[in-house]
Amino acid sequence: MTDTAGNFLRIAFVGFGEAAHAIASGWQAAPARGLRAYDLKLRDPEAAEQVTMRCGAAGVEPVASLEEALDGTGLIFSLVTADQALEAARAAAPYLTPGAYWLDCNSCAPQTKQKAAALIEEAGGRYVDVAVMAPVYPKRHQVPLLLAGPHAGEVAGLLEQLDMRPRLTGEKVGDASSVKMLRSVIIKGLEALTTECLLAARRAGVEDAVLASLQASDPGIDWHARGSYNLERMIVHGARRAAEVEEVCVTLREFGLPDWMSSGTVRWQRTISDLRLDPGDDDLAQRFDAVLRTL
């Protein structure tokens, strides 16, 4: 992959969890070469093997230090947890190649991204606010992306070379993340609401009547399937979702608004995740019974 001047851009990932693996493994025959990744888990002997195997499966070279990952790198995908996005930018800033693009793909508040942008720009990098707008599976590298900031237009062309699906949404850093955060008030909040509602309905023995009433009120949603799916998302990804919604709360407060609903969402997402359950088969009753036995 080359920039607008025809220069080859080496690509690196900072953080190599599910999202980074999905993107890198999706490229395969796309023009992505010289892929490197740095993840804090590589410092942990117990976790390093899993990260190394994940990298190998995606054709990515795991490296031992952030400095090595960023050396000569022109395009950097930051895909850490929401609560580590600012720290990742701070840690990376001293090692950036001048003019390197820092794609902050983390689900965090626009105010957090603006602070990260200041660090990257001061170090000579070019910061881009990126919002990942759908689950990375099954779309992988073709997951829809919103891009914002003064360098977003330049990066969109580079991502298209990689067969990705970027869309420009604003000129200011924070515009893309604002869309992501405020959408999550509903998406992650609906997961918590359906779980709270249907757990109580199951315990009361009236879940069929509750589901029938919901279906009659809003027939555009399959409430039985949505309830099961929403709980599965919380069981599997609740910890990450809780961290994201904490950033939603920051966003709301920074805009001078209360975060009453979203703070409750954080508690539900984290509580379900902390149960450490196997989601099992796609069966609403089985999933809710497993939670009720453990909660």
Provide an overview of this structure.
This protein has 11 helices and 8 strands. The chain has helices at residues 18-27, 45-57, 66-70, 85-92, 110-122, 152-161, 175-204, 207-217, 223-254, 260-274, 284-294, and strands at 10-14, 36-38, 61-62, 73-78, 101-104, 126-132, 144-148, 165-170. It is globular and about 60 Å long. The mean pLDDT is 93.
N→C terminal distance? 50 Å
In what range is the share of β-strand residues? 5-15%
> How would the global form be characterised?
globular
Uncertain runs: none
* Helix residue percentage: 40-55%
- Summarize the main sheet: 8 strands, mixed
Average pLDDT across residues?
Answer: 93
Strand arrangement within the widest β-sheet reads 3-2-1-4-5-6-7-8
Count of beta strands:
8
Order of helices and strands: EHEHEHEHEHEEHEHHHHH
Radius of gyration over C-alpha positions, nearest whole angstrom: 20 Å
Structural class: alpha/beta
Please work out how many helical segments DSSP would assign: 11
How do the strands and helices of this protein lay out in sequence?
Layout (H helix, E strand, L loop, with lengths): L9 E5 L3 H10 L8 E3 L6 H13 L3 E2 L3 H5 L2 E6 L6 H8 L8 E4 L5 H13 L3 E7 L11 E5 L3 H10 L3 E6 L4 H30 L2 H11 L5 H32 L5 H15 L9 H11 L1
Parallel strand pairs: 1-2, 1-4, 2-3, 4-5, 5-6, 7-8
Antiparallel strand pairs: 6-7
Helix pairs in contact: 4-5, 7-8, 7-9, 7-10, 7-11, 9-10, 9-11
